């Protein structure tokens, strides 16, 4: 699925960091990188469902079909109606893909027990969808470009085709920070070269990143969200927790403030004195302390939370969860935010980068919804079915035989497999 790159027509969310002309140039670079990967793959047929007029960037041998009028879901369905065999569909927002990744995705599709594959994106959507037998009805009722798109697409696939086999989760680009993140994953690409030439990273002075020391991959941090007010979804999520609650890696205290509003007693711990001061400024109770140190009242907390990527603390989710399980009481609950299915488990060494300042390296981890059950089991906990809220993924962990928490997926997602 592609759109002819034109100023003011594509990637408008890159503004105001990028001009309409720069946004169109970045979109064109991404499209060219994507087509290179597609043409290098083992696909026997390449179809471009195009919105707009063809340009000289259309590769020889590709079949071009026009997108129909209407919403994006209707356009997807119409494009799939013209396919008659195993098909993998992607967009032009993930130029970090490679021919090898596409080949592995098509192999996964061939062997998928449910007859379909799905690659989720970090923003709540998806970057790839494949079906052994095209079924356009999987797009009925699925809003596109929305934080719930991926979760609702999972439901639709399960209803119309079968449970999807997971492809690796990727970052697609809509904002300037996304472009920098994706460019770091595709060094030597057209997008990376143009991002560097435009100095995009220098235009984002307040953006913080974690850089993987082994690969150079960038992980964009949501620092602007951490200091903002809590969302309605976060209030709903935290309202189901019993207190007292321990907020592990509380940061500036956003979640502690929500819990206080809900009348739930809570304590936050964080190793950053700046974060602890910010949390106290909000009126929260917070200590400058590692969760691996002695925690006041440990063993008597009803709940603990590991949100905003804090499952990565220490670079070893198993050890972290074992420690948190010691802090909550017998029968307590641990609410963990994970990455989307397909993220798996990653552990490594990172540095914090901001305004070109770089921290010493420290261990970090990322945990996807598809790996949380095995990691929790190794830590002596049982994981409930991962669920999604507004594009973010969570899991509730408990010891074997413990009472049920008020939190649940509410039937949002089942059978992650």
Outline the structure in words.
- The chain is built from twelve helices and 20 strands.
- It is of the alpha/beta class.
- It folds into two domains: 165 residues, Spore Coat Polysaccharide Biosynthesis Protein SpsA, Chain A (Alpha-Beta Complex), CATH 3.90.550; 175 residues, Rossmann fold (3-Layer(aba) Sandwich).
- Strands 10, 11, 12, 13, 14, 18, 19 and 20 form an eight-stranded mixed β-sheet that branches. Strands 8, 9, 15, 16 and 17 form a five-stranded antiparallel β-sheet that branches. A four-stranded mixed β-sheet has the order 4-6-5-7, with helices on both faces.
- Helix 1 runs antiparallel to helix 6.
- The longest helix is centred in the first third of the chain and has 21 residues.
- It is globular.
Question: Structural class, from helix and strand content?
Answer: alpha/beta
β content, as a range? 15-25%
Number of separate strands? 20
Mean pLDDT across residues: 93
Residue share in helix = 25-40%
- The shape is globular
Output the CATH homologous superfamily of the largest domain: Vaccinia Virus protein VP39
Total domain modules: 2
Rg, Cα atoms, Å: 22 Å
Multimeric organization: single chain
- The CATH architecture of the largest domain comes to 3-Layer(aba) Sandwich
CATH topology name of the largest domain = Rossmann fold
CATH class of the largest domain: Alpha Beta
Give start-end ranges of low-pLDDT stretches. 401-406, 408-417
């Amino acid at each position: 699925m592609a759109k002819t790159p034109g100023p003011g027509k594509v990637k408008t969310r890159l503004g105001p960091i990028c001009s309409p002309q720069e946004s169109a140039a970045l979109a064109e670079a991404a499209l060219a990188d994507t087509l290179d990967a597609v043409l290098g793959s083992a696909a026997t047929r390449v179809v471009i469902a195009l919105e707009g007029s063809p340009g000289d960037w259309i590769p020889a041998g590709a079949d071009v079909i026009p997108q129909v009028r209407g919403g994006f879901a209707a356009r997807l369905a119409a494009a799939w109606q013209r396919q008659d065999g195993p098909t993998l569909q992607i967009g032009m927002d993930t130029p970090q893909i490679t021919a090898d990744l596409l080949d592995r995705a098509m192999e996964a599709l061939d062997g998928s027990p449910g007859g379909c594959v799905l690659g989720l994106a970090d923003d709540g959507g998806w970057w790839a969808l494949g079906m052994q037998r095209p079924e356009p009805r999987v797009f009925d009722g699925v809003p596109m470009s929305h934080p719930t798109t991926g979760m609702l697409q999972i439901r639709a696939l399960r209803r119309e085709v079968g449970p999807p086999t997971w492809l690796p989760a990727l970052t697609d680009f809509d904002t300037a920070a996304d472009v920098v993140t994706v460019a770091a994953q595709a060094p030597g690409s057209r997008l990376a070269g143009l991002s560097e030439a435009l100095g995009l990273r220098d235009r984002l002075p307040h953006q913080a990143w974690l850089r993987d020391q082994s690969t150079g991959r960038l992980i964009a941090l949501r620092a602007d969200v951490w200091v903002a007010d809590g969302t309605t979804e976060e209030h709903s999520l935290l309202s189901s927790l019993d207190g007292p609650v321990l907020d592990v890696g509380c940061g500036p205290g956003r979640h502690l403030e929500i819990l206080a509003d809900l009348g739930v007693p809570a304590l936050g711990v964080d190793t950053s004195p700046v974060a602890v001061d910010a949390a106290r400024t909000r009126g929260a109770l917070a200590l400058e302390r590692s969760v691996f140190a002695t925690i006041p009242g440990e063993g008597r907390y009803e709940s603990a939370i590991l949100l905003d990527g804090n499952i990565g603390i220490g670079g070893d989710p198993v050890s972290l969860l074992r420690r948190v399980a010691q802090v909550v009481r017998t029968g307590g609950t641990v609410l963990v935010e994970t990455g989307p299915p397909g993220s798996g488990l990653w552990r490594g060494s990172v540095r914090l980068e901001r305004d070109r300042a770089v921290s010493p390296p420290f261990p970090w981890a990322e945990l996807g919804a598809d790996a949380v059950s095995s990691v929790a089991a190794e830590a002596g906990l049982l994981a409930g079915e991962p669920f999604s809220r507004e594009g973010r993924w969570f899991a509730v962990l408990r010891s074997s035989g413990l009472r049920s928490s008020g939190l649940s997926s509410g039937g949002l997602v089942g059978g992650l497999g």
